Amino acid sequence: MVFSKRLRERVRSGEITCSVRFWLSARVKAGGRYPMEDGEIEVDSVELIGLPDVTPELARESGFLGVLDLLKVAKHGKGEKIYLVRFHFVPGG
Q1: Contact 60/32 with Cβ under 8 angstroms?
Q2: Cα separation of 47 and 6, whole Å?
Q3: How far is CA 76 from CA 21, 89, 90, in A?
């Protein structure tokens, strides 16, 4: 999983533990580990959600100022399905 530069430190610190992704199909799975600088992202859950589920609270929890800020970053490419990915950062050794 790739995060925008402005979010990476907050992901590493554990402040951000979820991400909203627009994909054609799920690109990660629960229990999977994905490389990130200084460690890995371990996915706790992946849930298909709808646009009404992308609330201001969820946007802030994902590290954004609000829904529009999240959509500007997350909505790119051909992905039409919306996934809520919950995860935790595992520091590298």
Answers
A1: no
A2: 24
A3: 10, 24, 27
- Per-residue pLDDT at 1 exceeds 90: no
**5-91: CATH topology:** 2.30.130
The helix/strand/coil state of 92 is coil
pTM over 0.85: yes
Beta-carbon contacts of 2 under 8 Å, excluding residues fewer than 6 positions away, are none
**pLDDT of 28-75, one tens digit each?**
999 999 999 999 999 999 999 999 999 999 999 999 999 999 999 888
Sequence ranges of the domains in the chain: 5-91
**79: helix, strand or coil:** coil
* Cβ count near 43 (within 10 Å): 20
